[in-house]
Amino acid sequence: MIRVLIVAASSISQSGLENLLRASTSLQVVRVLSDFGQLSEGVEELQPDVVIAEITGQDRTLPEEVLKLSEEAPVPIVLLVDNANDERDLDALRNGVRAVLPRNMSPGGIVAAVEAVGVGLAVLLPEGLDTLLRENTASRRTVSPPLVEALTPREIEVLGMMVEGWGNKEISTRLGISEHTVKFHVAAIMGKLNASSRTEAVTSGIRHGLIML
Description:
The protein has helices at about 10-20, 40-45, 65-70, 85-95, 105-120, 125-140, 155-165, 170-175, 180-190, 200-205; strands spanning about 1-5, 25-35, 50-55, 75-80, 95-100. By secondary structure, it is of the alpha/beta class. A five-stranded parallel β-sheet has the order 2-1-3-4-5, sandwiched between helices.
């Protein structure tokens, strides 16, 4: 059973998404939140497998809470937006989002996307996939800047777990070290890779051949 946390400002959207997802035998709605300010606390308390969040209006800037979530407690996120398939979708995908879907997508499509994200997949509409492929092709032609400093074996090990989407608490448990030590390693990794986020650090690590997918 895939545990889903819903975030939507409109009561109509809240009710619609909850009824839609509850109709699926593979999905369990653990809670419905009315704003992003409750997101981090809800994820920490409920440990959902997927977060589905609605962003309305023309301002498609990712809420601070989503960015914080992707840094501290990575959880797959599905976004519902007014207009999908533009450059802002790529920014979302770089920051922990696994699917960006139009709000008017068919109910079956939304359920299928949540189910796919819940088992570790990412969902892209055809137009978004074309854009992403073009960007990846261009990035391969770009020479990565040299590392500020070489990573230690332990830092490479932590970086590999970051690739898997593990949060600091999971990494500390797996390695048998304190969460404070994990945060120290993550900070060192980001500094050496000249990265401003975990996602950027992972991308840089892959480009430098430090980790393999």
